[in-house]
Amino acid sequence: MDERARALKALGLFDRISKLDRETMDSDLSAYTDHMADQGTEAMEREKAALFATKEGRYIYRLEEALRRMYNDPSTFGNCDTCGSPLGYERLDALPHARYCIDCKRKEEDVA
Ligand SMILES: [Zn+2]
């Protein structure tokens, strides 16, 4: 029941954030996307590159990646990828796509 409640809360959080991001993305990129729409895969690649060129685009990508992880495996979502301990809502609230707990993140940054 704890896992379920956590996944549901996370889902609400992501719904809110991804809705916000999509509204931003739509207004920024709709003209560009319409223009590119009939130009096939190469255009898709260029569109993706353009999206990645923006900070918002990378953020959205990471959010969507996090969403996919959550849907694929809700029971481990919100746990650190390295040590498996729960990230906690405060960390997920501040950084919804966080994959590592603060301890592991620090260790990783020390190495890098
Ligand atoms: Zn950890």
Detail the topology: elements first, then pairings.
Blueprint: H1 2-36, H2 40-52, H3 55-72, H4 89-94, H5 102-111
The chain binds zinc ion (ZN).
Structure, explained:
The longest helix is centred in the N-terminal third of the chain and has 35 residues, at 2-36. This protein folds into two domains: 1-77; 78-112, no CATH class. The chain has helices at 2-36, 40-52, 55-72, 89-94, 102-111. The protein contains five helices and no strands. α1 crosses α2. By secondary structure, it is mainly α. It starts with a helix and ends with a helix. Helix content is 73%, strand content 0%. The structure holds zinc ion. Zinc ion binds at residues 80, 82-83, 85, 100-101, 103-104.
Query: Which class of secondary structure composition applies to the elements?
Result: mainly alpha
Specify the number of helices: 5
Dominant shape:
globular
Biggest sheet architecture? none
Keywords:
112 residues; mainly alpha; 2 domains; binds zinc ion
Task: Please sum up the structure shown.
By secondary structure, the protein is mainly alpha-helical.
